[in-house]
């Protein structure tokens, strides 16, 4: 077994893979076969962490450019707390990241993939995003296969990082790891990239930062369980700073009946949400679904006892492509009457019927248009509906039972525009980089379809800077 490397990457998802591939390839172009270690807490057959399970939507146009409104939107939703320079670097580097994917055989789909059409009907706030053909798994396999062609790259499966090592001057120079024998060894390298995700798989950290009942938060997919907050812990131990909102998460409304990964309800604005008491609790039309599904998932967990139900009627079913935003592997429940649907969900039939009747009576006379914010609203309700308020009065009626699931955490490690981990004073820690969901950026809200793209981008950036620094430091 090798213990000495030029680069150690902790994490085998999008960020870690982008870093490892970039370093290995760029070294080879200069005639050097670099030794690179990539650590994965899981076994080979489950490689890829959370990236393996995601749809990996990318907020780009077919030319590979980031949504031009994203940087300003980040400032708006974060209340100015998001690092603007970092966001602008992300925007600048996005085309190179998209080219990187394509160069490694990842086919990107736009209008060809089904969910793109849901951005056209009822909820347009961003143009249809791109997505890898095959989702995040396609990224994992394409980049892992590339790495396997390099003799100098070691995949260390079932190996977890314990702590960083430093020299006497404080430069990070390696990682203490533990493999499946339970024994530790020290790997050394002049550069370490932490890319091991947030802390959504760590109930203790979730309770510490998110609050009580964090144990009731299911994870959206199996790969998320390995995100234990190791990178945050190790960074704090060597004096690194943090960023992002630690008491906020990216949650999503998930089909309670499903055991599949990513069984999320997206296109919901034409229906209504009710809780276990058959009462509405959220303005389903306050914004487009891509800007609200996170808030709905969070509300279900935080205030609705992890139980909610989405209900719609035949008019919703006639919207072209609406069902393509229902990612569950199970069809919605269906019934001829509201009372019958209530019984299927275990709700009080009389109460649900009364809630629907009150909602129907409150709907304004404005014209309904699912293609835009139509202003068709309710009047006089304690919980209003601002757009797409359509009476639920035409059977058959449909619905999904929902729970809130955690996708990723907002709080993480603070880095600069070169992906270097910095101290509270903003000073980079020599030899230490971080990328992906481990790095804190988001406050209050996550603008969709940017997580995987950001991970890939700053994984690349970290490796390029690390290699440049190694070249400058190497003897002539």
Can you put this structure into words, describing what you see?
The protein has 476 residues and is an alpha+beta fold. It has helices at residues 14-29, 70-77, 84-103, 135-148, 203-209, 230-237, 293-303, 314-317, 338-345, 349-362, 451-473; strands at residues 7-10, 36-40, 108-109, 131-132, 153-157, 160-166, 172-178, 184-188, 192-194, 242-243, 249-255, 272-275, 308-312, 333-335, 397-409, 412-413, 420-422, 428-434. The chain has 2 domains: 7-246 and 410-473, FAD/NAD(P)-binding domain, CATH 3.50.50.60; 251-405, Succinate dehydrogenase/fumarate reductase flavoprotein, catalytic domain (Flavocytochrome C3, Chain A, domain 1). The protein is elongated, with a radius of gyration of 24 Å. Strands 5-2-1-9-18-17 form a 6-stranded mixed beta sheet, with helices on one face. Strands 11, 12, 13, 14 and 15 form a 5-stranded antiparallel beta sheet that branches.
Describe this protein with a few key phrases:
2 domains; 28% helix; 6-stranded mixed sheet; elongated; Flavocytochrome C3, Chain A, domain 1; 18 strands; 5-stranded antiparallel sheet; 476 residues; alpha+beta; FAD/NAD(P)-binding domain
Strand proportion:
15-25%
- Strand order, biggest sheet? 5-2-1-9-18-17
**What is the name of the CATH architecture of the largest domain?**
3-Layer(bba) Sandwich
Low-confidence stretches: 113-126
Instruction: Round the mean pLDDT to the nearest integer and report it.
Output: 93
Number of domains: 2
Q: How many H/I helices?
A: 11
CATH-wise, what's the superfamily of the largest domain?
FAD/NAD(P)-binding domain
- The succession of helices and strands, N to C, reads EHEHHEEHEEEEEHHEEEHEHEHHEEEEH
Choose one word for the global shape: elongated
What fold name stands as the CATH topology of the largest domain? Answer: FAD/NAD(P)-binding domain
Summarize the amount of helix as a percent range.
25-40%
Q: Give the structural class.
A: alpha+beta
For the sheet with most strands, the description reads: 6 strands, mixed
Evaluate the radius of gyration: 24 Å
